[in-house]
Amino acid sequence: MERPSLEINLPNTPEEGKLYVVDSLNNLNKLNVCPDESQHVLEYMAWSNIRNQCLFFVTLILTLIVSLVLVSFVIFLIIQTRNKMDQLSSRLIFEKKIIEELKKMNNMILNFDLEKESCLLSVKRTTDSLLLLI
């Protein structure tokens, strides 16, 4: 279906009549293009569009805030883990030193026992030799 052209030739109409006709055509066009119900729909769509934009920006800001909180939490966890690892490392180094000292003490005790046994053996030999002489 073709739309009728809005151009109308009015060659014999005076100037005031032409203005009246153009004004009437404008009013008719407004009625056909945008009735009252449609005007409300257009206003609702405009507010809906603005509301959607505001909702988008609020969602974007909330997403950025949540991302910032999560990144801060991850950084906190990394720092805590590093501190725990430092504590564990220093504890292991301390325990290693203690183990080394215990090894040295054990070696000293073993050496002392060996010397004591050898001394006892030598005393026993000496006493045995003396007893044989008597």
Automatic annotation (TrEMBL):
Protein name: Leucine rich single-pass membrane protein 1
A Pfam family matched in the record: DUF4577
Protein keywords: Membrane, Transmembrane, Transmembrane helix
Transmembrane domains' residue ranges: 55-79
InterPro entries: DUF4577
Source taxon at top rank: Eukaryota
